[in-house]
Design a protein that fits this description.
Elements: H1 2-23, H2 28-44, H3 46-50, E1 53-56, H4 68-76, E2 80-91, E3 96-106, H5 109-113, H6 139-144, E4 151-154, E5 158-159, E6 165-166, H7 172-190, E7 201-206, E8 229-232, E9 237-239
Parallel strand pairs: 1-2, 1-4, 4-7, 7-8
Antiparallel strand pairs: 2-3, 5-6, 8-9
Length: 242
């Protein structure tokens, strides 16, 4: 088992390096053209149009689909927008402290534009402002359901035709999704199944250079989450079938 996991990690690392190398060759114009096509397709989805609360990753300056227009469009439509926030948390089972991710609200375009950038150049909520924001996984949000999400727009390094994704290797999204679904389970149990709490619609955005050819698959484990839909910059759309 240990050897199998080592081989899987090595396979992921090799694929990640290959795709990231290809992305470095793309111009900003190429990325923006694909981003525009992806944004228009996202805006046409009924899941996006009906979503009241949406989480959107905030994009790096280069190398991935830009999400600025998605954030701005969602805010203008009156949706409540959440963005990723990384922080340290101590886990009770082994008393270890690890970086984890939550989703926190932003209130307006002015709020979004004021976010400082981290070392990756990604707009990131200031830790000093977190107490003023709604958090998806906070105790307050659990009691009021104010942090529930209808849609999560997810980044990745690579994707395959079966909607599996390869991230940057830190596991932030997979762990968040696990914790969020546990939150939904507890909420449903607490409410005695009176209220049907739906899992958020998971949609990935991919430049065409990030999509593996047909027949090639992302290596995954049981902890890796599959997307409900994938929108690609070449115009293709991959969706879970009922």
């Amino acid at each position: 088992m240990t050897n199998d996991m080592s081989l899987l990690r090595a396979s992921k690392t090799k694929l990640r390096k290959t795709i990231l190398g290809s992305l470095k060759q793309l111009s900003q114009e190429q990325i923006q053209l694909q981003s525009h096509s992806i944004q228009e397709r996202l805006f046409s989805l009924p899941e996006y149009q009906s979503a009241k609360r949406i989480s959107v990753y905030l994009s790096m300056p280069s190398g991935e689909v830009s999400t600025r227009c998605i954030v701005e469009d969602a805010l203008r439509r009156g949706k409540q927008v959440f963005v990723p926030y990384l922080y340290k948390e101590t886990f009770d089972d082994d008393n270890t402290c690890s970086a984890v991710m939550d989703m926190v609200s932003i209130s307006s375009e002015a709020d979004y534009n004021s976010l400082p950038r981290d070392t990756w150049g990604i707009p990131t909520p200031d830790p000093a402002s977190i107490s003023t924001r709604i958090r998806s996984l906070s105790e307050d949000s659990r009691s009021t359901n104010s942090g529930s999400l209808d849609m999560i727009v997810i980044p990745g390094v690579a994707f395959d035709q079966d909607r599996k994704r390869l991230g940057h290797g830190k596991g932030f999204y997979d762990l968040f999704l696990h914790r969020y679904h546990e939150y939904l389970r507890l909420q449903t149990s607490a409410r005695g199944m009176i209220e049907n709490l739906q899992a958020p619609f998971l949609v990935g955005l991919a430049l065409k250079e990030q999509l593996l050819p047909d027949g090639q698959a992302i290596p995954t484990t049981s902890t890796d989450w599959k997307l409900d839909a994938l929108i690609v910059g070449d115009g293709s759309y991959h969706r879970k079938t009922s």
